[in-house]
Amino acid sequence: MPEQPLKASERTVYEVLRDAAAEDPDRPALSYMGERTSYGKLLSQVDRVSVCLSERGVVRSDCVSVCLHNCPEAVVAFYAANRLGAVAAMVHPLSSSEDVARCVEDTKCKVAFVNGASARRFSKAMRPDAGCGLVLIPAPGEEDRLPGTESWEGFLREAGHGTPYERRCSPDDPAAILYTGGTTGPSKGAVISSTSFNASAAGMKELSGLCETDQKMLSVLPLFHGFGLCTGIHLPVLHRMETILVPRFSAESVMKAMAEERPGVIFGVPTVFERILEKGVPPGLDLSFLTGLFCGGDAMPAEARRSMDRMLAEHGCNARIRIGYGCTECLSAVTITREDEARDGSVGVPLPGCEVSIAPMEGQPSGDGAGEICVRGQILMTGYLNRPEETAEVLRRHDDGKVWLHTGDVGRMDEDGSLVFLRRAKRVIVTSGYNVYPSELERCLDSDPRVKASCVVGIPDSLRIASVKAFIILKDGVEKSVGTIERIKARLAEMVPAYALPREFVLLDAFPRTMFGKVSYKDLENDPSYSADVAPRLA
Q1: Among 1, 9, 38, 36, which residue's Cα sits nearest to residue 23?
Q2: What is the pLDDT of residues 152-175, one digit of tens each?
Q3: Beta-carbon neighbour count of residue 308 at 10 Å?
Q4: Does CATH number 2.30.38.10 belong to domain 345-424?
Q5: What pLDDT, in 10s, does the model give residues 382-408?
Q6: Domain spanning 8-314: CATH 3.50.50.60
Q7: CATH superfamily entry for domain 430-538
């Protein structure tokens, strides 16, 4: 009897792409800045790059860093690494020098694909004897040559003859490392398997009701994030859709892509939809082709969601924004609201194959049903790279014998099975869909020779959900001036990602305190007297 084909759940991510190309090699897979790539051509590029990686010494379990904007080369590198059984470490191109150095030390990457924004940081982080090559893929508008790097074309010229495909890893082996702050502190690498990618993409497809017939997805989310890589890239591959890659998000770039490509589906963080709302839809643009709009990464303000839905309806769109909940440790979405649901606070029902439970929390009032949101299923990471203790803190075996992810978020389950998100259990600021950890910023600020103490909080922001604000007490004798703040800000900018840099700095003589003598973050966040200044500030 002929061998039965493997189910997607039994495939590696590369094998899922290979199946899609074998099924219909001429079907469009990617569109980028007006150029289309078929599934057959995409597979051919992936196979060629895997040969080049192999010739650079990349073997099973090695790491390949991908530190790029949204572009076809990032997609190719991700699948090419998996063909060899290697792991793609996806890194934010605007990561701080410290984060890049941590990634390099963590992964011991053999090859790094970088753009102009990240090349210098990677070059500085590499030890002279590391033997890691830097392959430059410039973002639009960047220089195409930088010292210490080679071009994509030069990298491909070294390709020898490939060999027939031979499976070198299982679906349960690592496919990607996605960097996250975890629940607190410095960034950590969440190790994600092919099984997780396939389970997340399949569950999202089933619950969202997407159809794959001639469907296009507009991919605006960054590929270094689990939401963007899984939902924006692997989901379309698993279901034979076409992905429209937008290199850098702007309301203008999204509207241009919508007008030219007429995508049926768009996934985004709240900022994506709010900037579209702020910019407005061009007159005469009929949006009836949009059949699925999904928002995750953070809670979308109810009024913004309602305003966006009204604007969509005014332009012929019958779909409404559906809200999801997830985190990098579970790759992408865990829940999505039902198609007809629009309750404030609800983040929907679990994806097929996922379970959500609420665990009691110390200090949480009993009787209201609220507690820490816990998740289990094939979508979970296998752990944090090289951090067994921190892995054990978040992946815990419960009395039911199952391993659950403790998210650090507070919520409750409604009677109909919907999850209601209430707040984050630990100090974290979500700005434009990115997690910013105040304790990490405070550590960097406190290391400044001018700073005696610092406190970082999130301030509500209609565009970014929250903006980062730093309160600083200077050491005795340091001049309280805008110039001093500018120097502190410049130093901090060398240590943290651009998205985490506070948008406002305020100098204080003392922090407000609680009755227990602790810093009152609530007062700093909400009391106008700590906004209208008693000392110099810089916005």
Answers
A1: 38
A2: 999 998 777 778 899 999 999 999
A3: 20
A4: yes
A5: 999 999 999 999 999 999 999 999 998
A6: no
A7: ANL, C-terminal domain (3.30.300.30)
